[in-house]
Amino acid sequence: MSSKYDFALDMATDNSNSLILRNIKPGSDVLETACAHGRMTRYLSETLKCRVAIVEYDAEAGASAARFASDARHVGPVFGDLENGPWHANFIAEGMAFDTIVMADILEHLRDPAKALARARGLLKPGGSIWISVPNVTHNAVLIEMLNGRFEYRDIGLLDSTHIHFFSSGSLEAAVRGARLEVARRLDPVLAVKRTELKNSYRDVPWHVALYLRMRRGGEIYQFVWELKPA
What does CATH list as the number for 16-230? Predict the structure, then answer.
């Protein structure tokens, strides 16, 4: 698992990581959850000169990210558990708060995403934000798979085999509201059907179905990248 999400940071294209990082103020206090091996952590620390605290369930990945963090106490399956670990209580007890909390590509892996969001909300400074990124299970590539009787998990991407929750825009909005948050900005990157890891195309469905899918609003949104504020 620790090497599964160990890939290079791409700041040249519009992807979930780059869109979030471009909107974080240099020199600010940041809490990065599910930081993996620290590709964003390093950029936050070395390029943006932020003070970065991390929470990471995977001990091996967290040890790698810890090199770039100012606070790396909450690493491993006990301390780095976003839903049940002590990180939230520890930060509250110490009066720590953050300008930005990053929850990139993690909510879909949690049993109770709204609970994790609510815990994070309590750690924001006045005016602070939570940035999330979540795969869009209603991407046209997934619908084409389902119309052809397929729903096969992949190692990464829209149908990642470790996803516990799948989100549409509406269901993600419900989770956000459940955490007493609201969407302040949406920077949703799009990815054409033929470019996704599912390797299908509009030619895989009847022409009239393909026409409908092409006209669907948001049908090629690959991820929801949202800035959240307390409601």
Answer: 3.40.50.150
**pLDDT number for residue 37:** 94
Structure tokens at 217: 């609003």
- String of b and e for 175-195 (b: at least 16 CB within 10 Å)? bbeebebebeeebbbebebee
Angle (CA) 17 156 38, round 5° = 40
| Predicted confidence band of residue 5 (pLDDT cuts 50, 70, 90) | low
| Tokens 């299970």 belong to residue | 137
SS3 content of the chain, % helix, strand, coil (to 5): 35, 25, 45
> What are the residue boundaries of the structural domains of the chain, listed by start?
16-230
- Calculate the alpha carbon distances from 24 to 39, 48, 93, 161 in Å: 15, 8, 25, 30
**Nearest-angstrom CA–CA distance, 67 and 56:** 13
Find tokens 């990053």 and name the residue.
Answer: 102
Category of 99 on φ-ψ map: left (φ > 0), alpha (ψ -120 to 50) or beta: alpha
pLDDT in tens, 95-148: 999 999 999 999 999 999 999 999 999 999 999 999 999 999 999 999 999 999
